[in-house]
């Protein structure tokens, strides 16, 4: 499937409501548990998505549009949410994410991106040369990856309870 901005927006605009539907009002056992060492809980994922809205996608899009490859992206701290989310509730994080996403999508629409702009080059500190199109496609894939990660973390909580069906539940890690 080729990247089309309108199709990308279909996913990006739905992520906040998917997160609210899946997570709002759940007990702590569902939202604060992960699926192993160095993995994110659903709470962590929402915090991570907020950090991306604040420091990654649109910030980097502007760097590409304004500076091209002459200014590399600032490194992204994948773990910044641990400190930023301290003392907050999941309801607060979901609301903040929704607000930031709406703002960012409005800003993205206002850029009136053409195929030529989408092909502009930027410089990623680890990956090298990237296009704006690749950055925006990654934003969509990143959302979908983290929705999967949330489902995986939640399913993992019943890893011992599903009995012999576990062999059919391929996204629950086997010990």
Commentary on this structure:
By secondary structure, the chain is mainly alpha-helical. The chain has one domain: dinb family like domain (Four Helix Bundle (Hemerythrin (Met), subunit A), Up-down Bundle), CATH 1.20.120.450. 57% of the residues lie in helices and 5% in strands. It has nine helices and two strands; from the N terminus they run H-H-H-H-H-H-H-H-E-E-H. A two-stranded antiparallel sheet has the order 1-2. The mean pLDDT is 96.
Task: Give the topology, please.
Layout (H helix, E strand, L loop, with lengths): L4 H8 L2 H9 L4 H4 L10 H14 L1 H11 L13 H4 L5 H21 L4 H4 L2 E4 L3 E4 H25 L19
Outline:
Helices cover 57% and strands 5% of the residues. It has nine helices and two strands, in the order H-H-H-H-H-H-H-H-E-E-H. The protein is elongated, with a radius of gyration of 18 Å.
What percentage of amino acids are in beta strands?
under 5%
Mean pLDDT: 96
**How many structural domains can be distinguished in the coordinates?**
1
CATH architecture: Up-down Bundle
Overall morphology = elongated
- Work out the helicity level: 55-70%
Which CATH first-tier class would you pick? Mainly Alpha
Give the strand order, joined by hyphens, for the main sheet. Answer: 1-2
Radius of gyration: 18 Å
What characteristics describe this protein?
175 residues, mainly alpha, Four Helix Bundle (Hemerythrin (Met), subunit A), two-stranded antiparallel ribbon, 2 strands, 5% strand
């Amino acid at each position: 499937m080729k990247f089309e901005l309108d199709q990308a927006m279909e996913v990006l605009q739905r992520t906040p409501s998917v997160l609210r539907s899946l997570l709002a009002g759940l007990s702590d056992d569902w939202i604060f548990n992960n699926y192993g060492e160095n993995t994110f809980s659903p709470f962590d994922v929402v915090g991570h998505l907020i950090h991306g809205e604040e420091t990654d996608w649109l910030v980097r899009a502007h760097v590409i549009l304004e500076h091209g490859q002459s200014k590399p992206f600032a490194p992204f701290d994948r773990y910044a949410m641990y400190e930023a989310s301290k003392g907050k509730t999941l309801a607060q994080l979901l609301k903040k994410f929704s607000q930031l996403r709406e703002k960012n999508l409005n800003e993205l629409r206002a850029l009136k991106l053409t195929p030529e702009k989408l092909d502009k080059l930027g410089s990623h500190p680890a990956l090298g040369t990237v296009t704006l199109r690749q950055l925006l496609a990654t934003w969509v894939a990143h959302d979908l990856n983290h929705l999967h990660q949330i489902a995986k973390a939640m399913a993992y909580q019943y890893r011992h309870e599903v009995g012999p069906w576990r062999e059919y539940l391929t996204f629950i890690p086997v010990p």
